[in-house]
Amino acid sequence: MSSELYFKKRKILVVFLIFSLFGSLKAQELNNKSEHEFTVYVMPSMYPLDWSGPSALYKSMMSCYLKTITLPDNYLLGHVAVGLNSTLLEKPLLIAQSSGSLQEKLDLIMKQKVGFGILGAPMQGRLETTSELAHKLGVYARRNKLAFIRFKINELAARRMLTFIKQYSSKINKTYSASDFYGGAFWPLYHNEGAGCSAFGMAMLDVAGVLPPENKEWYVDVKIPMKLVGGEYNNGKKVKVKTIKRTDKWFEDKGEANVDYVKHMLYEPSIMFDWILERRQNPDSVYQPLNDGDVPGLIVDVSKILPDTTKPIFRERLTPNIFVEKYMEKINAAE
Questions:
Q1: What is the domain extent for residue 175?
Q2: Is 8 inside a domain boundary?
Q3: Which residue, 200, 243, 282, 292, has most beta carbons within 10 Å?
Q4: How does pLDDT run across 34-46, given as a tens digit for each residue?
């Protein structure tokens, strides 16, 4: 073999090895990149809410309302939206549960005077679309009022999330679907119940088996004194504003649920927002800081956690709730 032919063959071999190595690295890069990602987007209230007691909450809510009454694209109490980016989808999904009618809220508060019953009262609801949420996320990002947690998940988890959305938005009867209703008392993994915005997002994590234990740091859990609940949820009682202002504490005594008090648990967007920013300052092996443009967030890999597909997605509610009971009466009457 001539030296010229030898060097040509050697050159070809070197080029082949380089391309083989490059291809191997690209394949490894693709394998390392998650094919399924679920993102929880959190938008806090524009001004802090004080959950230390009923009077404090009322005053802070009114203050926030008056300061933002003319602000466009505003979620008064904050908001949670979720996104799913998966090879199972033709394009990324962005979705959220929202209330449907401002007038209905005003009627409950001003006419029926339900008082703090507004925190749990079922109302008209709807699922927000990708296009409108993309706009709102952009608005909140420019206000520096947007943060997120991104979960790397597996295909089984993604499929279970999609199944939940399909069934949740399917008709219960010829008239309604669960997604047509919004309310703070709902947990959407109970049969035929609607959801609040944050409960909707947390339920998707739950149904996929990846709701983190840290979720206990994201919600408020209080007992609303029955004297602060009015309307059809308390024999037509009309709650006066002065009664709310004079009530400094949540119900703390021993008593009967739905008689002496109403239990209220809410994943609070503002608490979640602050938690994300604080965790970014103290990253660990589980949560790592991640920026999406100028939007601060966290990323966590839960792709090795498989959902229990033997369990049904929806289950029966075992704990009575006056808000849900009234809602179920109306749903059953419509069948």
A1: 34-334
A2: no
A3: 200
A4: 699 999 999 999 9
